């Protein structure tokens, strides 16, 4: 069953139940109010006749009361204390006699209702006591229930007609409402169907700011992310293919040359050395790819330990210092002595080595690279700042993406595969920290790592 049908049925059933209960309640109260009104009117007329009798109890007064009731739809019976009927505006029948027989001698001054049941009885009736100087008695008032039943029958017809109009309006409203509510869902269903088939170029319009709008926005975000991931995957595969094709071409080409019999031993050794270097380059690429794969699959384990930061940074400083001195770049270390962090020394050393390697590659002779560590707001901030060529502003958002290189020519002199910073960022995040970069072309670059202090 379609969602629109289910939704329409649920709304219909709920509104129908509410309408039915409301109609029944309203109908019963209207009928009850009308009956109470009729009974109170009867009792008021009886009280009025009682007052007239008590002011002047004689045949003239009795005839006057009979004349008053002769032209109305009510009937009056006046009886004395002995039960003798002194006045009746209509011939007493069995229904009226049954009511007269159940009257009590102890009646309140304002009268009582003798018969209120209108569905099964022929009359509704009230009785009011009177008292003169010479006698006591009762004034009985009757009203035929046929009039009440006719009123209820007419009321039922009005309620039925109102119900039909309400149901018709409800059907139209539910139909339009389900169309309005389910149309966005149908659009989203088509969008998800396209997504399942690999078509990520879908567009889901956000037409409201409610839950449906949030769902549409989520699906659109998912589609955009999947489309981005698809493009990134294609770019990644193309980049990997390019990175592998170049060294493999070198290996194959120089292997073919090395197999020749007419080359000198020194040349063969040179070619074999190039083959070895390219093989090592392919091996490094595969190791970095394997590391990324393990990180993506949450299989990359780190073993944290409490480390004093200054000796740890100093060991890395001493390890990379010769390379910086060879290029005539000054390397400085500035760190507080009392900083402790929870890190995996091996993995975190890999992070710092990757960043320092970038600083070395893209800094000119005579510049300075500074490693600095400070405490700030219960955090440890480690920064590596160089005075290199810097990163163009448009490239900064992408420097941590896999296989992204600011130097688009992929010159072999600069080395690297564009994976070092991607691995570094994910390793820092596994440690519970963050890695960010700020740079200005010609002024240098600063990479900042923020960790929790141990």
Quick take:
The chain has 454 residues and is an alpha+beta fold.
Description:
There is one protein chain. With 454 residues, this protein is of the alpha+beta class. It folds into three domains: 3-151, Beta-Lactamase (2-Layer Sandwich); 211-296, Signal transduction histidine kinase, dimerisation/phosphotransfer (DHp) domain (Helix Hairpins); 305-452, Histidine kinase-like ATPase, C-terminal domain (Heat Shock Protein 90, 2-Layer Sandwich). Helices cover 55% and strands 17% of the residues. It has nine helices and twelve strands. The protein has helices spanning 3-55, 59-70, 94-101, 145-196, 211-258, 265-296, 309-326, 345-361, 420-430, and strands spanning 74-80, 85-88, 112-115, 123-131, 136-144, 305-308, 330-335, 340-343, 368-376, 379-385, 434-440, 444-452. The protein has a five-stranded antiparallel β-sheet with strand order 2-1-5-4-3, sandwiched between helices. It has a five-stranded mixed β-sheet with strand order 7-9-10-12-11. Helix 1 (3-55) runs antiparallel to helix 4, helix 5 (211-258) packs antiparallel against helix 6 and helix 8 runs antiparallel to helix 9. The longest helix has 53 residues, at 3-55. The model is unreliable at 409-414 (pLDDT under 50).
